[in-house]
Amino acid sequence: MTSALVFRSGAAAVLPLAQDLQAIGIEVLAQEDGCSKLVQAAVRHAPDVVIGEVSTPGDGLFKATQALADTAPCPVIVFTADIDAGRIEQAVGAGIHAYVVQGYGAQRLRPLIHLAQARFRQEQALQAQLRDVSQRFEERKSVERAKGILMRARQLTDDEAFQVLRTASMHSNQRLGQVSEHIIQSAHFAEGVNRAGQLRMLSQRVVKLYLLRLAEVQARTQDALLDASIQRVDANIAQLDKTLSAATFGDLLAQVVATWQRLKPALKGKPAAGQLATVDALAERLLQEAERLTSGLESAGAAPPLKVLNVAGRQRMLSQRFAKGALMALLEPATPTGEAAMTLAQREFEAGLALLQGLPLSTPEIRQTLDAAAREWALLVAGATHLQRPAGRDRLLRLEGLASASENLLEGFEQLSAHYERSMQMLMG
Fold first, then answer.
1. Which of 75, 246, 249, 400 gives the lowest tally of CB atoms within 10 Å of its CB?
2. Cα separation of 49 and 373, whole Å?
3. In CATH, what number is assigned to the domain containing residue 68?
4. Rounded to two decimals, what is the model's pTM?
5. Same domain, 211 and 358
C-alpha cells in the first residue's frame, strides 16, 4: 500500500486530503500543520509520497521542500490556488514534482501520485547519471595527477605510470580513482612532512652559521648560506601555509611563524656575541614547534613510510645540531648546553642511522646515499673531536673542516629525504 504524509499551510487550506487519500487506498501516516517540521516528519515516517495544500506558497514552503529533497528525497505534490508564475517556477526547482494550481479533485489524486512518482524516479535517475559522470571526471583528474606524481618521482613515461596505477588497482581491488587519490594524499603528506622537517633542520643550521660568522670562518660563504637558509624558511612556511589544512594545522603553523618572525631579524646584520643566547633560544623554540608540526603531519598521514621520511628528515636536523653543539662548546665554553647538545645529538643521530640502514624500504640509490652519509658522519665526528684540541695555527682549518663536513652530511640527507619522498613505497603505501 502506498503511504503518504499530508501537510497543510495557510488559513485557507480546507481540502479533505486525508479523507480522500484514505478513500482511494492510500495510507495516511501523519498530518502536519505548516512546513516548519516537514523534514523531521518525513524522516520519522518515511512516506512514499508527501502531499500538501498551501494557500499562499512562499519561501517557507520552497525551503522545506528543498531541504526534504536534500535530506529524505521522495515525490512531493502541492495543491494551491495561487496562480503566480514566479512561484510556479520556484516550485519546479525546489523539489516539487506536481504543483497543481486550482486543480484539486479526489479522482485525480491517484494519477497525480503516479505522475509525481514517475517524475521523481526520472529525477533520481538523472541525478545518478550526473553523479556517475562527475565521479568519472573527478577520477580522471585524479588519475592524471597521480600519473604526474609517479612520472616526476620515478622518471616514468605516461604509459608506464598508468600501468603502475592499473597494477596497484588490481592488486588492491580498488578503483583506479581510489588508488590515484591515495597516491595524491601520500605525496601531499610526504611533502608536508619533508618541508616541516626542513624547518627543524634550518632552526639549527642558522645558529651554526651564526657561530661560524662569529668565528670569522669563510665569512662570505657563511653569509651566503645564512641568507639562503632564511629564504628557505620563508619559502617552506609559505608553501605549508598554502597546502596545509588551516583547521587542522593552522595553530601549529602559526606558532612556527610567530617564532620565526622574532628570530629572522636577529639573524640579519653583523653577528654579535651578545646576541647569541637570544638567537639560540629562539632557534630552540622554533625547533620544538617545527617538531610538533612534523609529528602532526606524520600522524595525520597515517602511513608507515611517513615515519621513515620523518626519521630521515630528522637526521638533517641532528647533523646541524651536532655541529652547532661542537661550535658552541668551542666558542662559548661557558655555555654548558653546547657539549650536552652535541652528545645527545650524536646518540640520536647514530640510532637513526642504524634504523634507516636496517629498513626494507630501500632502493639502490637510497642504499648508496646512506653509505655515503655514514662516511660523512664519521668525518664530522672526527672534525668535532679535533676541535677540542688546544688552539693552534690550524684552528681556522679545523673550523673550516667542521663547517664543510656538516654541509656535506646535510646534503647527503637532503638527497636521502628526497629519495624517500619520491620512493614507490612512500607513494603507494
1. 246
2. 72
3. 3.40.50.2300
4. 0.65
5. yes
